[in-house]
Design brief:
The chain is mainly alpha-helical and about 625 residues long. The protein is built from 26 helices and 19 strands. The strands form eight sheets. The protein has a three-stranded mixed beta sheet with strand order 1-7-6. Strands 8-9-10 form a three-stranded antiparallel beta sheet, with no helix packed on it. The longest helix has 28 residues.
């Protein structure tokens, strides 16, 4: 029987070491797993050369079971290419024939077979399995860094210079094999358990990155063939890719945490603002790469810039644009950049002001900068009002308080239906480790009464159906802004002026073609009111809006937010797929009639041309 140290090294290498897949061994192992579960062997093995494509393929093949996939811009091309590959691999003529050919997922059946074997062992063996699984869990935490806890191969992966989130697959890529978590397989290996399908699952885990089981096919991801690791065997490379897959697709990582590729590829552009715009653990990885002492020093200097602010930034300025600009001319007779902006030099004026950095908050630039920002946001407000009127004419169903309540009622009813479905619960628990099953059941028993109470309250409540898509600034917005700046540092003048002149904007709602059409999430333009913002303890960020998926009533991901402090004319909108500056994001949104999710998509709705006609350039 191998020693614990030998098993630890073996599974450490399975998780992190680079070596090519033995594809024949993986396929043979999968066949044995199917047979042990009493499921007919797959007639096809679909290999993918990186986990992004493999996970997208698996998600596409289960789309009919889980609903449509929200297609963000960063994923759309990958989804198209993966569909084409699946069509070619299966030999069918069109996409609609692929899923019937491959069939439904059988992962639940395979998992049930594996766990039923484990449950047949005597209580003493089950206790040993549980003890060793917990030990390997701690090992994996040490090997894989902090990203989402025990993630390992399931880190958020780098794609085209950004962190690519693989949704739920992000936390299961390598740590679940055939429905059994990798730590349980490691404990079974140590204890020498030989009842099928356990040995076959272990053989498959050695020879692929991850795999998904369907009736007619198995989707398999090849192992990584290159990796740089630190002295704790975590993926780590401060100068290049940390992990490489057979087709050259790479992961950039520091101490086991995935980072955006451009942090390494473009070190000159790796600034403190890049780090401040991220959540932990990515923010911590960025600080480690930047250098902790250097980061602390630069952050202190960055926060000091507010000390010389122009007196204009401490005034309670009026919301009316003309009155504001008259005040700026009174304060500062010459406004050359504002005059150029009025003449139509919109983009270049904003670019020049952005290049001034923190100087836009200091005289003699502040009056001119605020005048440009005021004129810009006055046009934004006018365009927003025009869009709202046109959307009403299109019978667009704006999200109102009453509509949101209706939606929440439907979601609660569906959640309770699923939570009270004993057959579904039994199938789900069959795929879980015992400890996870106990925890999930306790959580279910605790939450059902709470959800039922909330549902009763909502059904008894009144419904407000008034459309409030555009709301004027609050009377004390200046005070709110100063409080935030005193606590977290300067806001960019663009966002500050939006709240002072526009207020808040919410185009969320439903329409047959503008939003959630042909798999495209329209991502309606939303800028939340300042009073609703959470001041996040990690990263000092202000949330601007929810992400596109959340707006479309999917589970959602990272919110769109601005990093603070940001002593400049404008700031990058983090989390938004394009990661544009805030004003550029507004320009993009109005170019698509308030639905920037259509950027880059084929066949945008015909309604967009009517929505955008005659909008003011800014």
């Amino acid at each position: 029987m191998p020693s614990l140290e030998e098993i630890e090294v073996r599974w450490q290498d399975i998780l992190t070491a680079p070596y090519p897949s033995d594809r024949s061994a993986a396929e043979d192992g999968i066949r044995r797993v199917y047979r042990a579960a009493g499921v007919r062997e797959p007639h096809q093995f679909l290999w993918f050369e990186n986990p992004r494509d493999a996970s997208v393929a698996a998600e596409l093949l289960t789309e009919s079971e889980t609903g449509e996939i929200p297609a963000s811009p960063s994923r759309l091309e990958c989804i198209r290419a993966t569909r084409e590959k699946l069509i070619q691999a299966t030999g069918v003529e069109r996409w609609e024939a692929v899923r019937p050919w491959i069939g439904c997922s059988v992962s639940g059946e395979l998992a049930k077979a594996a766990w039923s074997v484990l449950h047949r062992y005597p209580q003493r063996n089950q206790a040993e399995i549980k003890t060793m699984t917990e030990r390997f869990y701690q090992y994996a935490l040490r090997w894989m860094g902090s990203h989402h806890g025990i993630v390992g191969k399931g880190v958020a992966l780098s794609l085209g210079g950004e962190v690519f989130n693989l949704d739920d697959g992000m936390v299961t890529l390598q740590l679940v094999q055939g429905g059994v978590d990798i730590c349980t397989l490691a404990s079974c290996d140590y204890l020498g358990l030989q009842d099928e399908p356990i040995p076959s699952l272990i053989a498959v885990a050695r020879n692929c990155f991850n795999w998904w089981a369907f009736e007619g096919a198995a989707v398999i991801c090849a192992r990584h063939v290159g990796a740089a690791r630190d002295d704790q065997s975590r993926w780590h490379n401060a100068t290049g890719p940390a992990v490489e897959f057979p087709d050259g697709w790479s992961v950039y990582a520091v101490a086991g945490d995935a980072i955006p590729a451009h942090w390494v590829q473009e070190p000159a552009n790796f600034t403190i603002a890049e780090i401040q715009g991220r959540h932990d653990p990515l923010r911590q990885a960025g600080i480690s790469l930047y250098g902790r002492e250097r980061f602390a020093c630069d952050l202190r200097e960055w926060r000091k810039c507010i000390r010389e602010d122009s007196p204009l930034l401490r005034e309670d300025l009026p919301a009316d644009a003309r009155t504001r600009i008259a005040r700026f001319r009174q304060y500062q007779a010459s406004l050359p950049l504002y005059d150029r902006y009025l003449a139509g030099d919109h983009v270049e004026v904003w670019r020049e002001l952005q290049h001034l950095g923190a100087e836009v908050r200091h005289d003699p630039y502040t009056g001119d900068a605020l005048a440009v920002a005021t004129e810009t946001m006055a046009r934004v407000a006018s365009n927003a009002q025009t869009l709202i009127e046109r959307l009403v004419d299109l019978a667009y169903e704006f999200e109102t308080e009453g509509a949101a309540t209706d939606e929440e009622v439907l979601q609660l009813e569906e959640s309770l239906r699923r939570m009270n479905d004993e057959d579904r619960t039994r199938r789900m628990y069959a795929r879980m480790a015992p400890a996870a099953r106990e925890s999930m059941e306790a959580l279910r028993r605790e939450n059902v009464p709470k959800l039922e109470k909330r549902l009763r309250e909502l059904k008894a409540s009144a419904r407000n159906r008034d459309i409030r898509a555009l709301n004027a600034p609050s009377a004390d917005i200046g005070k709110q802004i100063r409080e935030v700046e005193e606590r977290l540092g300067p806001l960019p003048l663009s966002l500050r002026t939006f709240w002072e002149v526009v207020g808040d904007l919410n185009l969320r709602g439903n329409h047959s073609s503008l939003n959630k059409y042909e798999g495209v999430v329209g991502d309606p333009l939303v800028v939340n009111p300042m009073i609703t913002f959470g001041m996040l303890p990690t990263g000092d960020r202000l949330e601007i809006s929810e992400d596109a998926c959340f707006k479309a009533r999917y589970s959602g991901g990272e919110s769109y937010s601005i990093a603070l402090p940001s002593p400049s004319m404008d700031a990058r909108l983090w989390g938004e797929p394009h990661e544009l500056m805030f004003v550029d994001y507004l320009r993009l949104a109005f170019r698509f009639g308030g639905f920037p999710g259509w950027d880059g998509k084929p066949r945008p709705p015909k309604e967009i041309s009517g929505l955008t006609k005659g909008l003011l350039a800014f």
